[in-house]
Design brief:
The complex is a heterotrimer of chains A (about 550), B (about 270) and C (about 325).
Chain A lengths: L7 E9 L8 E10 L4 E5 L6 H8 L9 E9 L2 E2 L5 H7 L4 E4 L3 H4 L6 H12 L4 H14 L5 H4 L9 H13 L5 E5 L7 H18 L2 E6 L2 H7 L2 E6 L2 E7 H6 L4 H9 L16 E17 L2 E17 L3 E5 L6 H8 L7 E6 L2 E2 L5 H7 L3 E4 L13 H11 L4 H14 L16 H13 L5 E5 L7 H18 L2 E6 L2 H7 L2 E6 L2 E7 H6 L4 H9 L20
Parallel strand pairs in A: 3-8, 3-9, 6-7, 7-8, 13-18, 13-19, 16-17, 17-18
Antiparallel strand pairs in A: 1-2, 1-4, 4-5, 9-10, 11-12, 11-14, 14-15, 19-20
Helix pairs in contact in A: 4-5, 4-7, 5-7, 7-8, 8-20, 14-15, 14-16, 15-16, 16-17
Chain B lengths: L1 H9 L1 H23 L30 H37 L1 H16 L2 H11 L4 H28 L2 H8 L4 H9 L4 H24 L10 H7 L9 H28 L6
Helix pairs in contact in B: 1-11, 2-3, 2-11, 3-4, 3-6, 3-9, 4-6, 5-6, 6-9, 9-10, 9-11, 10-11
Chain C lengths: L1 H34 L4 H6 L7 H10 L6 H13 L5 E2 L4 E2 H36 L4 H15 L2 H15 L17 H39 L2 H8 L4 H39 L4 H10 L3 H29 L7
Antiparallel strand pairs in C: 1-2
Helix pairs in contact in C: 1-4, 1-12, 5-6, 5-8, 5-10, 6-8, 7-8, 7-10, 8-10, 9-10, 10-11, 10-12, 11-12
Chain lengths: ~550, ~270, ~325
């Protein structure tokens, strides 16, 4: 189909890693082409080498340890790997530019947006100052930033995440490069913000006929935006093709497994009877943060949670869905009293946890346990994991030997070898650490399990495994679960009931099937329309474990 | 533990510093057996040059310079370690409570810390020693009083960040008492920072002590390197080495401690190598 | 315009906040006086034997030593607020006047030291941090390491031995050549010659501190994402260093400089003593020698005020450099 020569032609690229890394090469013998006017998505999990490859194209690898050792990268005919430093600097920003994942850290915090964009113009054009500024304003308006003229003098921290990313896009596009590399540009953004940025990408790419190399881990994004797709695993490209072909009829087992692991937006049937006894009831919970304050200044008041009511029945999973800043995490913390709410009641088995003294509370804490989000921060790096799991019961009076043997049993329950009890957290992968976290929560035999974004930090294949584990355990132990997430797909698979939160309030509350079929609140509808790839009905394959394809 | 020692040993400068420190400690301990009569004994004619009859010569009163160095080592190490120990204890308690509990307690403790950091510390130490009249005990007290704020700040920062880490939150959510959380989970995770800061505090304490004794604020019954330099100050033209030698001793000791401290820092907090 | 108003309000707020600290310091002074062994009046007069009985009586009455403690305290407070810091018998002048005449030289010395130590510290730290583990870095780091371990008084004395005694390039002590009655530019030149060695001595330690801090800060900044972004725009490494890294890396230095002011004042006691530089540091030493507690406490109080003022200035400067920090 592409008759013109590709704007980017990667041939047999190999990138070496330093000797202390866990594998010798980040990228092995990779070949890819990108036509001048298309969006090519490169999909892979963490460690697939996709980011390294992207940086290699611009020669931004952290030398000298990470080095391209073989192959060539032809950018419009010139081999990037063999250019002089001066020529490479000329090309950067002008023929090829890059958009990074985390806009807060990718922008210099002490320089204004305008100054940072102007730098590109200073370097590559002979324009004078008064010619530069109008171009910057024009570009900022083109990426749909409001008040473009004022924004020129704003600092990065004064903008929202989405606005910062638009500014970065403006900076990358201002010289109309032929190739733009976007390294997970929407991963750090809320789903509604992401929708806007993806739309912007599509619009700009069509208008200016740019070739875009778009790195992502999200197949939904691929479905929405890509013309062609390349799938990477362990530094190699395992499959390449048009979006339709790869997404709907994948040939490589890894691709098949990966796609199968993406949760569908079709909600499962409700399992729990509506007459089951109520295990946890939250009434009128309110939490406001006060900050700042000082001489002559008002204190900043941020209402994080405004009058929340919810109930969870025996065996039910209630999902709390919201974006960042919605208050869902604060809600979870208030329920377990890691943070003290100002008002409200949290009733479990007839006892209002909010009214208990610190000492009484400690005894009741065992009934409601939490699984946390960050697998790398949720386990004490200095404790052996057997000890970690057993500590809860020990604190509550269980004799040490018994607690440790219970820990072993729990390790088996979550699919880990009980002999691993003597090892330290850093010896385990992210998914395994989450399992340990689940085991720790279960050790106290709680009646309610709160899962606070338990799979958000995991790769999609590992995510599927952990979700399956949670569902399995919940069914077996008949646990009531409060599941917090920002991902509607995950909510569809795991939850019976859903509460949609926004700015501290619940805007919609009901059975998952009802809400997914016909959301009533405008915000809920907005959330649904923002889910990437929502129109894509992906094939479910019998193989569902991407880590062990046949 | 083994990995830690390996990394430490690989840092040759730190290792060299450690050996030097060991030698100084050995000399300090062996002091009294080498020079029975003590450093104040008049051993020979004044102003004997070094590398003559007396290994490092004699000072303006005829005291043996080498004996003075050896006994001075005892003084510096003793005061340095003791003052740092007290400062560390004070800093850990204050900083730990402020960082863990936050809120009003944090504000109050931080105000106190700020106040102590505002006072010109050396002047305050001079005041304390001058008023309570100079002795080993008052010098240790004075140095400890002005040294604890940086430790408190560090510990507060570490405790605050650890308090918000999910594994600590998990411990609290499990129903653990505060003391258990602090002693078993928070404190062990900042021990390495405390040790590194503590080692640098020892170096500062030795420098402060030598400055105090240079100005005449040392225990009159005890020989100190700073005192030796101060006493020889009037004879700079005639016998400059009497000022130089004890100063070199201070320099070498503090340098060795700094090297060890830097080595500890690299070994306990390994960062990406460049 | 509103920025200036914000700043003025902020400074006012900080000054108000300083009052409790000063109160604490004054109270500490008061306690220290009464902690000293012996009669407070004896202590305040210096050696009791050298004061006339009339003076002692005046002193006792003035300090109300026959009155209950809290009355004494309030009197003391009142005196301090009206800037009456007592009388130095030894020098025969009110403490306040004594300090006023000596403050200038100390400010000169400290100002020069701050400029030298921060300027060289930032520059050398930058040179070291931009090429880690190179020869340039190793030389600078070793130099900083050794300087950081060297006692101030020793450096001063050794510099005197080398430059003043052996080479005779620079004077040994004092601020001016008293015998030659220089005026105008010649006087400035004379003071400058006398300033060289004391300033170098005092700067060496702090410069070493800033070099180490700056180097670590530069290393940290070079790993940041915005550096990669700058590179992706086509900037040379040199431009990245000076236009992006430098300002971000310097911020911790500014903070540290504020923290170190108190130490700097302490260091000036030693350096002024070694070089006979007629500032409040030397005044403190003389007061110590003469057991003139009143004078010593006066110097301490003034030094504390100086530290507070400089800290406020440093904080304002910091907010000018870092747009993320708003004046609150």
């Amino acid at each position: 189909m592409a008759t013109s020569s590709p704007i980017l032609d990667i041939r047999n690229l190999t990138v070496d890693l330093p000797p202390w890394a866990d594998r010798p090469q980040a990228v092995s013998d990779v070949s890819l082409t990108l036509a001048p006017d298309e969006i090519l998505c490169v999909v892979g999990e963490s460690g697939s080498g996709k980011s390294v490859m992207a940086r290699a194209v611009m020669r931004l690898l952290p030398a000298p340890h990470v080095r391209a050792s073989g192959g060539s990268i032809l950018l419009d005919g010139e081999d990037v790997l063999r250019l002089s430093d001066a020529r490479m600097r000329e090309l950067r920003g002008r023929r090829v530019s890059m958009i990074f994942q985390e806009p807060m850290t990718a922008l210099n915090p002490v320089k204004t947006i305008g100054a940072q964009i102007e730098e590109v113009l200073e370097l590559h054009t002979p324009l004078r100052k008064r010619e530069r500024v109008p171009r910057i304003v024009e570009m900022l308006a083109a990426v749909r930033l409001p008040n473009a003229a004022q924004l020129v003098d704003a600092y990065p921290h004064q903008l929202s995440g989405g606005q910062r990313q638009r500014a970065m896009i403006a900076m990358a596009l201002i010289l109309e490069p032929a190739l733009v590399i976007a390294d997970e540009p929407t991963t750090a953004l809320d789903v509604t913000t992401q929708k806007g940025i993806l739309a912007l990408f599509r619009e700009i790419q069509r208008a200016r006929h740019i070739g875009v190399l778009f790195i992502t881990h999200d197949f939904g994004v691929v479905a929405d935006i890509a013309d062609r797709v390349a799938v990477m695993q362990h530094g190699r490209v395992v499959e390449v093709g048009t979006t339709d072909a790869v997404l709907n009829a994948p040939t490589h087992p890894y691709t098949q497994a990966l796609i199968a692991a993406v949760p569908s937006l079709e909600p499962r049937a409700r399992r729990v009877a509506s007459e089951a006894p109520v295990v946890l009831r939250v009434e009128g919970l309110e939490k406001t943060y006060h900050s700042g304050g000082g001489f002559g200044r008002g204190r900043r008041v941020v209402p994080a949670v405004k009058t929340i009511d919810l109930t969870i029945r025996h065996g039910e999973t209630l999902g709390v869905v919201g974006e960042s800043g919605s208050g869902k995490s604060t809600l979870a913390r208030c329920i377990v009293r890691l943070v003290d709410a100002e008002r409200g009641a949290v009733v479990m088995n007839g006892v209002d946890l909010m009214r208990l003294s610190r000492r009484e509370l400690r005894k009741h804490r065992r009934q409601i346990q939490t699984v946390f989000q960050d697998p790398y921060g949720s386990l004490d790096p200095r404790s052996r994991i057997g000890r970690l799991i057993a500590e809860g019961p020990i604190v509550h009076g269980v004799p040490e030997q018994e607690a440790l043997s219970r820990a072993h049993a729990l390790l088996e329950l979550v699919g880990l070898d009980p002999r691993a009890a003597d090892r330290f957290p850093h010896e385990f992968s992210g998914g395994q650490r989450q399992r340990i976290g689940i085991a720790r929560a279960l050790a106290l035999e709680p009646a309610v399990l709160i899962a606070d974004e338990p799979v958000s930090a995991l790769d999609v294949s590992v995510q599927a495994q952990v979700l399956r584990l949670l569902a399995d355990i919940r069914d077996r132990l008949k646990l009531a679960m409060l599941f917090i997430t920002h991902d509607l797909r995950v909510a569809a698979q795991v939850c019976d009931t859903i509460a949609v939160m926004r700015a501290g309030e619940i805007v919609e509350y009901g059975a998952v099937g009802d809400i997914f079929a016909s959301p009533s609140h405008p915000y809920t509808r907005e959330l649904f329309s923002a889910v990437p790839g929502r129109d894509w009905r992906h094939p479910r394959s019998p193989i569902s474990d991407p880590a062990n394809p046949p | 533990m083994n990995a830690f020692l390996q990394r430490f040993a690989r840092n040759r400068a730190a290792f060299a510093g450690f050996l030097v420190l060991l030698a100084i400690v050995a000399v300090a301990i062996a002091g009294p057996s080498l020079f029975h009569a003590g450093p104040f004994e008049l051993a020979g004619p004044p102003f004997s040059p070094p590398f003559g009859r007396y290994p490092l010569g004699t000072d303006m009163l005829g005291r043996n310079e080498l004996a003075g160095l050896v006994y001075g080592a005892r003084t510096s190490l003793l005061i340095g370690l003791a003052a740092t120990l007290f400062a560390t204890l004070l800093g850990v308690v204050i900083g730990g409570l402020a960082g863990y509990y936050g809120g009003a307690l944090d504000h109050a403790l931080m105000r106190v810390t700020e106040m102590f950091q505002t006072i010109p510390s050396f002047l305050f130490a001079i005041l304390v020693v001058a008023i309570l009249s100079p002795s080993i005990r008052t010098v240790i007290l004075a140095i400890a009083i002005v040294s604890w704020p940086p430790m408190a700040r560090l510990v507060r920062g570490e405790f605050r960040s650890l308090r918000n880490r999910e594994f600590v939150q998990a411990c609290i959510a499990m129903g653990m008492s505060d003391s258990r959380v602090i002693l078993l989970h928070v404190l062990p995770n900042c021990v390495s920072s405390i040790i590194v800061t503590g080692s640098l505090l020892v170096a500062t304490a030795i420098l402060t002590e030598s400055a105090l004794s240079f100005l005449g604020l040392s225990d009159p019954n005890v020989m100190s390197w700073g005192f030796m330099v101060g006493a020889a100050r009037d004879f700079l033209q005639r016998a400059w080495w009497l000022c130089a030698i004890p100063g070199v001793a201070i320099l070498v000791t503090v340098l060795a401690i700094n090297l060890v401290g830097d080595g500890l820092n690299d070994a306990l907090n390994p960062r990406l190598r460049h | 315009m509103s920025v200036a108003r914000d700043r003025a309000r902020y400074i006012g707020w900080r000054l108000a906040q300083a009052v409790p600290t000063l109160l604490l310091i004054v109270t500490l002074n008061f306690l220290l006086v009464h902690l000293a062994p012996g009669n407070a009046a004896d202590v305040l007069a210096g050696e009791a034997g050298s004061a006339t009985p009339q003076y002692m009586a005046v002193l006792r009455h003035e300090f109300g030593l026959d009155q209950p403690l809290y009355v004494q305290y309030l009197d003391y407070l009142r005196n301090v607020v009206s800037l009456d810091l007592g009388y130095s018998f030894r020098e025969g002048m009110p403490v306040r006047d004594l300090i006023a005449t000596r403050l200038g030289p100390t400010l000169l010395l400290m100002g020069t030291t701050i400029v030298l130590s921060i300027g060289l510290g930032v520059l050398l730290g930058l040179l070291a941090g931009t090429r880690p583990n190179s020869l340039r870095d190793n030389v600078i780091s070793v130099f900083a390491l050794v300087s950081y371990a060297t006692p101030l008084f020793w450096v001063g004395l050794m510099l005197i031995v080398l430059f003043a005694i052996e080479l005779r390039w620079l004077p040994t002590s004092g601020m001016v050549n008293i015998a030659a009655f220089y005026t105008g530019w010649a006087k400035v030149g004379d003071i400058a010659r006398h300033l060289v060695l004391p300033a170098i001595t005092l700067s060496l330690f702090y410069m070493a501190l800033y070099v180490r801090l700056m180097r670590a800060s530069v290393l940290e900044q070079r790993d940041m994402d915005y550096v990669v972004t700058a590179r992706s725009k086509g900037l040379t490494e040199r431009a990245i260093t000076y236009r992006h890294v430098l300002r971000n890396a310097s911020l911790p230095i500014v903070t540290m400089a504020g923290v170190q002011i108190g130490n700097l004042l302490g260091g000036s006691v030693v350096v002024e003593t070694v070089f006979g530089w007629p500032g409040i540091g030397l005044l403190a030493y003389k007061a110590l020698f003469a057991r003139d507690l009143n004078l010593l406490l006066g110097v301490f109080f003034v030094a504390a005020c100086l530290v507070i003022l400089v800290n406020i200035v440093v904080d304002v400067i910091y907010t000018m450099l870092d747009p993320r920090i708003a004046l609150r």
